[in-house]
Structure formats: structure tokens, C-alpha cells
């Protein structure tokens, strides 16, 4: 009490506030001081937008406005005040950092710290209060058009990578906005699909990275997603926001809607929403009514209810407090830097993260390229020259410079070799959901030209894959199938037949079919690599950098190997609610029962009449069941012994590693890893925990620790992992608590989730 009075007295006597008046310890005091001086109208006005990307402060008291920007891979170009058009500024070109899939593939939290710090400096320089990211939804289907913005299929990996990103970003006095909370694992029907999931899967998988972001990362804001959960939109969902996020986890930051995700004033008021953005648009159209902000759900409708006494002061003050806290932590923070833009450090960081995240999937010795003077290199594929920072939806970027793969390869090899280019295929333009259909004759002539030229080259480097067009890796729609588009399978097959020295580089944020894999001597998984894409790729192909990325998600053989697709339309993309097969309808408005879901999944869903017919969005309430429950990604493939093309955690190097026999002493597992090859390299040592005998079905193993270790040729290092009780637990949805059962656990030490180098036992007594 004394402390509060001490601060209130000097501040009340001021008319405006200065940064020097504030320090972190004072934030709560300042919040209360400001709140006590604000009118009802001022409090309410904090909770809804004043433009497409900003919300007001309290001008009378000198409390600054909130400026948000996408996120998460760089600071987006300026958008018009009232619509989605590009503002056309000339001073808003940024450094594009690699997509978050690439960051996850580095398996190196230090890269996430660097990423967050650098992107935060750019956001700070551009005067942004909140950067809209990182995205931590999990990889449930390879069709999800936004997987490239997320961090893969494993909640532990995503948690380990998002926490340092958030801390690095927020160290600049710029808030993160972790998205999309929660259960937004697809774009099809994203505005309304009602996700049914058990509490066990919710807590063990889908909420885990959000929980880490809040409790370990200290996230200052979080974005409520478009979809529904328990028949209520997630952005103002009583359970997700009030019960779990704010009460269970103690989140003290602001809940911001996804743009246009609010649907109802009462729910917005009472279910924990703090800031409404982007209403009355579908997130893509440019037809927002001009200056209709007061008509937002938390606009005058909210104010009127307050005036009528229908909203308790505790709720009005709680929303205002959270918004003030956000502003005090950012705009009004003492000692925050000024930020910087496109600095050499930013460019270097973008290149470094890309180098660390590129994954070598196959190599029969063709890589690194052994070029000699006068050799001919043919580069084929549209992605060798196309901008891959443009498009993709809200994560689009306008980089100051984007080094294309062709440019990067020419710079690296051009002094000794001739580097020629043939396009090979073309994807056409895509505007607002429409993709150009190109004539077959064009495909044929581009393909024939590339194949002819390939016959004559010493090396062919193919750079293809997906792109940021609608129905590729792009927000607002999912992919239509598991194949590479634009006739690439045929083109790749013919190139491999024409020239056996063909290196395949596939750019994507998703897994895809590879009918040509057996014939391919070398395959590189490149993500969307940002400004320094071409340099980073050339670093790997030339061997200047030894590849060390590992997959953050599994590559299955076919779409129906993924459980979401095995189930039929009920598992993805959702069916109309009257088509829900029993017993899968569950009880409306209640979480599903994990044990029942798993029992049915283990029986291969026999006897259940799955709906084959997906909803069509007409009813706007399609329902979808996460019927694989806790068996997501490798957890499923392991459990059912389903072969995958490339497992979670997989990635090759130009050197080789050998593992010693692991040992356990008490709770500490130790393993030695040696570089047995001729070049320096890095290995990601992965520790998975499994509980064979449990009262519930558990995954065979789950990632609980990893370490990326750099080793010179001949060098050996000891890697340790200390088992924590938390690593042994499952979420018991019947008791609503985490439980570790006594008994024997296995610790698997691997180079990937499939390549297990050793196993040790651990006896747990509680
Ligand atoms: C996306 C968000 C994004 C927001 C603002 C929405 O359509 O889902 O991820 O931050 O738009 O651009």
C-alpha cells in the first residue's frame, strides 16, 4: 500500500507522462494510476481498432497508440489505414528472415534468440508496438497452407524454439503476439470450423507451445484464432481464454483477435477478449467499410452496455489494464533501444539461420559439388528466380534485397563455371484465390527446353517446389493434394533421366510426394529462406557450409498415411454437424474423451461409418474431430509402425557421426558423439522418452530434449540430458492433471525419431 502511494502522488500531479517516469517495477503502479484517471469512454476505446493495424491510446493522458504489424518473418510493408491495400511507402523494405519452419529445422534455440532480437530491432525501428508472431500451431496435415509459418509437428520442439524468439523480440520493447490460439491447424473453413478434441490432446500437444510462450517466454500478447472450439469462436472462447489462458496460466497480457475473428459483443466482453482488430473483413478482401470502427463488437455496443450497468467494473478495468500494460511494456518502456533496419547484422543473421535450417535429405556423394574450371551448370526451375517473400498472405514481405537461388549460385560458381538458366515450368499468377490456368503447350515447351539443355550440362541444379500462391503455401486456403504442382514430377523425372548429376532443391513449408526419389542422387529441402536465400543455398551446395538442419515434421509416403486424412472428411477438413459419425459426435459443448478416441483409432476406426463428404462451408459450422488424439505426427507413425519417407528429426550432413553407448547415472543420461568424417559438422542429438507400461495409451516415445553439437573431424563430445519429472507425465483428462506413473521408462537417444542409436532404462518412483 505504502509503495503504491509513493508512486501515485508524484504521478497524479503530472499532466503528461515521460519515459523517464517509468521503469518495469512501476508498471503495475502506473497501470493503476492511469486507470484511476480514465473515463469509461477512454477505457472502452482502448479495446478496438482505429485503423487496419492500429488502436488508439489515451491521447488526453499522453498514452501512445498501439501499432501492430505482421510478422512473423520480418516487418511487413505498410498497409493502408482503412483497407488491406499496400500503402506504397518507399522506406519500408525489410530484411526477410527465413520462415519459421526453417527456424524450427535449425533445432538450435540460439538461432531463435538471434532471430527474435533481429526482427525485433526492425520492428522497433519501424515504430511497431506489436509484431504479429510467432505462429505455433502444430503440423497436423501437410495440406495446411500456413504450415510454413509454424514450427512443425512436435510441441516440445515448437516450445523450445518459440520461447527464445519471444524473449529476443521483446528485449527490444516490442511485444510478440503468439498466434493462432488455438486449434487453427488448417485454412479450409478456418473462419468457422468447430474443432473437437480431447483435453489430453489439447494439453499434451496443441496448447503446449502457447503455454511455454506465456509461462516461459513471458509473451505480452496472444492472438485468438478464427476457428471455433466447443461451438464458440476461439478469439472469445470462455474456456480457452478465461479458464485456461488467464486463470490456469496466469497470463497478464492482452488477447488480440485475429483480424476479423470477433463475432459477438457479449462473448467478446465476457470471454476475455481485450483488443478487437480487423472486423467486418474476411481477412483478405479490400472492401472494409471505411471508418466503421465504432461499429466493432467492442465499440459502441460495448460502451452502451457499460453505460447501462450491464458490464461489471472488474471486466471493464481488466481489459483496460491489459491494454495499458501492453503499452507501458512497449511504447512507454524506459531504456528501450531505437532499433535498426537492414543492418549487416540482420542480413548476416538471416543467412546464418537459413544455413542452419536447410535439410539435406539425400546424397549419394554428388554434394557438395566438385566443380572444375570451365564446367557448365544448368539451373532449372521457377523458384530459382521467383520472389518467395512476396505472397503467402499476411506474412508477405517486401525485402530490400532478395538474393535468388540463381543469383546466389552465379555469385558462388560463376567465376569458374558457366551458370545457365532454364525455367522448366511456370506457376502463373494468383490473385485473391484465383490461379491462372496455363496452357499445356507452355508446360511442354518449358520442360523440353530444360531437358534438352540438361543433357549438355556437367551439373543440373533444380530449384522448384511450392510457392506462395493460393492453394500452395499460402494463407486463406489449403493445398489441394500432396503432389508437387505445375507438372514438376514429370519435369524432375525427365531431368534425372537426362542428367544423372542433377541436384534437387525443393522449396516448401510442407511435405510432398516424391515419386522420383529413387532416381535422385541428391535432394535438399529448402524452406522459404528470405532475403539471403540464394547465398545460403549456395553455401550448402558448394560445401562452404556443412548442412545441419533436421526435419521439424515427418514426410509420409502418401496423404492418407496422415491420420487426419485416414479418417476421411471428419478428420479433415470437417463435415456438416449432422453427418458426424457416432460415437464420434461426442457431447456437444464438451471436450472429447481421449481414451475412447484412442480405442477407436487403435482398432483402425473399424465399424465407424466415416463421412466421405466434406462440408462445403455453406452452413458455416463444419465440425472436425482430431481423432488421432495424442498420436500426432511421428507419435502416430511410431505407434502403428507406419513407414515414412523421411522421419521427424531427420537430416544428413557432409560428415558422419558415431554415437557411443549411452549411460545413465541417477537421472542423468550421457552419450558421446564423434565426428568420424573429414569435415567439421554439427549433429542434433535427440532424446525421446517412452513409457511402455502405462494405464493409458502413450506414444512409443516423445521428444524431451535435444542439443545441436559442433564437432571438428575426429572430435568427440559428451552430451547429457537430465530427466525431469515433467518429461514423464501425461495429461490425465479424467482428473484434469499431469501424471507421472511409477515404473520403467525408456530414454531413446537418436539422430532422428527413427534412427535410434541407443536406449537406457530409468526406474521412476514417485
Ligand atoms: C492472419 C493473421 C495476421 C492478421 C493481420 C490474419 O488474416 O490470420 O495471422 O496477423 O491477418 O494481417
CATH class of the largest domain: Alpha Beta
What's the total helix number?
20
Helicity range: 25-40%
CATH architecture call of the largest domain: Alpha-Beta Barrel
Low-confidence stretches: 1-16
From the N-terminal CA to the C-terminal CA, the straight-line distance is 42 Å
Summed up, the domain count is 4
For the biggest β-sheet, the strand order reads: 11-18-17-16-12-13
| Counted beta strands | 31
Q: Please identify the structural class as seen in this structure.
A: alpha/beta
The ligands found in this model are: beta-D-glucopyranose
Task: Please explain how this structure is put together.
The chain is of the alpha/beta class. It has 4 domains: 311 residues, Glycoside hydrolase, family 3, N-terminal domain (TIM Barrel); 185 residues, Rossmann fold (3-Layer(aba) Sandwich), CATH 3.40.50; 63 residues, no CATH class; 112 residues, Immunoglobulin-like, CATH 2.60.40.10. Helices cover 27% and strands 18% of the residues. It has 20 helices and 31 strands. The strands form 9 sheets. The chain has a 6-stranded mixed beta sheet, sandwiched between helices. β28 and β29 form a beta hairpin. The longest helix is centred in the first third of the chain and has 17 residues. The radius of gyration is 26 Å and the shape is globular. The two termini are 42 Å apart. It binds beta-D-glucopyranose. Beta-D-glucopyranose binds next to loops. Beta-D-glucopyranose (BGC) binds next to loops.
Amino acid at each position: 500500500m505504502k509503495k503504491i502511494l509513493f508512486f501515485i502522488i508524484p504521478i497524479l500531479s503530472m499532466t503528461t507522462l515521460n519515459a523517464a517516469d517509468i521503469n518495469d517495477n512501476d508498471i503495475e503502479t502506473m497501470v493503476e494510476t492511469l486507470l484511476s484517471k480514465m473515463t469509461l469512454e477512454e477505457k472502452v476505446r482502448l479495446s478496438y481498432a482505429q485503423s487496419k493495424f492500429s488502436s488508439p491510446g489515451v491521447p488526453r493522458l499522453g498514452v501512445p497508440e498501439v501499432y501492430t504489424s505482421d510478422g512473423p518473418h520480418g516487418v511487413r510493408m505498410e498497409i493502408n489505414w482503412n483497407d488491406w491495400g499496400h500503402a506504397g511507402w518507399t522506406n519500408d523494405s525489410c530484411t526477410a528472415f527465413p520462415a519459421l519452419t526453417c527456424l524450427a529445422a535449425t533445432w538450435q534455440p540460439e538461432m531463435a534468440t538471434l532471430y527474435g532480437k533481429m526482427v525485433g530491432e526492425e520492428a522497433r525501428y519501424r515504430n511497431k508496438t506489436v509484431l504479429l508472431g510467432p505462429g505455433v500451431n502444430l503440423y497436423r496435415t501437410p495440406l495446411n497452407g500456413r504450415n510454413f509459418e509454424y514450427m512443425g509437428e512436435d510441441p516440445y520442439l515448437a516450445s523450445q524454439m518459440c520461447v527464445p524468439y519471444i524473449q529476443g523480440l521483446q528485449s527490444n520493447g516490442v511485444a510478440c503476439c503468439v498466434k493462432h490460439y488455438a486449434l487453427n491447424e488448417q485454412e479450409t473453413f478456418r473462419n468457422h470450423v468447430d474443432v473437437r478434441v480431447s483435453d489430453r490432446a489439447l494439453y499434451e500437444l496443441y496448447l503446449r507451445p502457447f503455454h511455454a510462450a506465456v509461462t516461459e517466454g513471458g509473451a505480452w500478447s496472444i492472438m485468438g484464432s478464427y476457428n471455433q472450439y466447443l461451438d464458440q469462436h476461439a478469439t472469445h472462447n470462455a474456456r480457452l481464454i478465461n479458464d485456461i489462458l488467464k486463470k490456469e496460466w496466469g497470463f497478464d497480457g492482452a488477447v488480440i483477435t485475429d483480424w476479423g475473428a470477433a463475432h459477438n459483443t457479449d462473448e467478446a466482453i465476457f470471454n476475455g477478449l481485450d483488443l478487437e482488430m480487423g472486423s467486418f473483413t474476411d481477412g483478405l478482401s479490400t472492401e472494409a467499410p471505411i471508418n466503421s470502427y465504432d461499429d466493432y463488437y467492442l465499440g459502441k455496443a460495448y460502451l452502451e452496455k457499460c453505460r447501462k450497468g450491464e458490464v461489471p467494473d472488474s471486466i471493464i478495468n481488466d481489459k483496460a489494464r491489459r491494454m495499458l500494460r501492453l503499452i507501458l511494456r512497449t511504447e512507454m518502456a524506459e531504456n528501450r533501444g531505437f532499433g535498426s533496419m537492414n543492418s549487416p547484422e540482420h542480413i548476416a543473421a538471416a543467412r546464418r539461420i537459413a544455413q542452419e535450417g536447410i535439410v539435406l535429405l539425400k546424397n549419394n556423394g554428388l554434394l557438395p559439388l566438385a566443380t572444375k574450371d570451365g564446367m557448365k551448370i544448368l539451373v532449372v526451375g521457377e523458384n530459382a528466380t521467383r520472389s518467395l517473400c512476396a505472397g503467402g498472405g499476411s506474412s508477405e514481405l517486401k525485402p530490400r534485397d532478395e538474393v535468388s537461388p540463381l543469383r546466389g549460385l552465379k555469385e558462388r560458381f560463376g567465376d569458374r563455371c558457366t551458370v545457365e538458366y532454364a525455367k522448366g515450368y511456370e506457376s502463373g499468377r494468383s490473385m485473391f484465390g484465383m490461379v491462372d490456368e496455363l496452357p499445356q503447350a507452355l508446360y511442354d515447351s518449358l520442360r523440353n527446353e530444360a531437358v534438352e539443355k540438361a543433357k549438355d550440362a556437367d551439373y543440373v541444379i533444380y530449384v522448384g517446389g511450392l510457392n506462395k500462391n493460393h492453394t500452395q503455401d499460402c494463407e486463406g486456403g489449403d493445398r489441394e493434394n500432396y503432389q508437387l504442382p505445375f507438372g514438376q514430377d514429370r519435369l524432375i523425372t525427365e531431368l534425372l533421366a537426362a542428367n544423372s548429376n542433377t541436384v534437387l532443391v525443393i522449396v516448401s513449408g510442407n511435405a510432398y510426394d516424391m515419386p522420383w526419389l529413387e532416381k535422385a542422387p541428391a535432394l535438399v529441402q529448402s524452406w522459404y529462406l528470405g532475403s539471403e536465400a540464394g547465398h545460403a543455398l549456395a553455401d550448402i551446395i558448394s560445401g562452404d557450409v556443412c548442412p545441419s538442419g533436421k526435419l521439424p515434421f515427418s514426410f509420409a509416403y502418401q496423404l492418407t498415411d496422415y491420420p487426419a486424412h485416414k479418417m476421411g472428411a471428419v478428420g479433415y477438413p470437417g463435415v456438416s454437424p449432422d453427418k458426424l459419425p457416432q460415437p464420434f459426435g461426442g457431447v456437444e459443448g464438451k471436450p472429447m474423451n481421449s481414451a475412447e478416441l484412442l480405442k477407436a483409432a487403435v482398432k483402425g476406426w473399424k465399424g465407424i461409418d466415416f463421412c466421405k463428404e466434406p462440408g462445403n462451408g455453406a452452413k458455416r459450422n463444419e465440425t472436425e474431430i482430431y481423432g488421432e488424439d495424442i498420436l500426432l505426427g511421428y507419435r502416430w507413425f511410431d505407434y502403428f509402425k507406419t513407414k515414412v519417407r523421411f522421419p521427424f528429426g531427420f537430416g544428413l550432413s557432409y560428415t558422419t557421426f558415431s554415437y557411443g553407448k549411452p549411460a545413465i547415472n541417477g537421472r542423468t543420461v550421457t552419450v558421446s558423439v564423434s565426428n568420424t568424417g573429414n569435415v567439421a559438422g554439427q549433429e542434433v542429438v535427440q532424446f525421446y522418452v517412452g513409457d511402455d507400461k502405462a494405464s493409458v495409451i502413450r506414444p512409443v516415445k516423445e521428444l524431451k530434449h535435444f542439443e545441436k553439437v559442433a564437432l571438428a573431424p575426429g572430435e568427440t563430445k559428451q552430451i547429457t540430458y537430465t530427466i525431469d519429472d515433467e518429461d514423464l507425465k501425461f495429461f490425465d483428462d479424467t482428473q484434469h492433471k499431469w501424471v507421472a506413473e511409477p515404473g520403467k521408462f525408456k530414454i531413446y537417444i537418436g539422430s532422428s525419431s527413427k534412427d535410434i542409436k541407443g536406449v537406457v532404462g530409468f526406474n521412476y518412483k514417485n
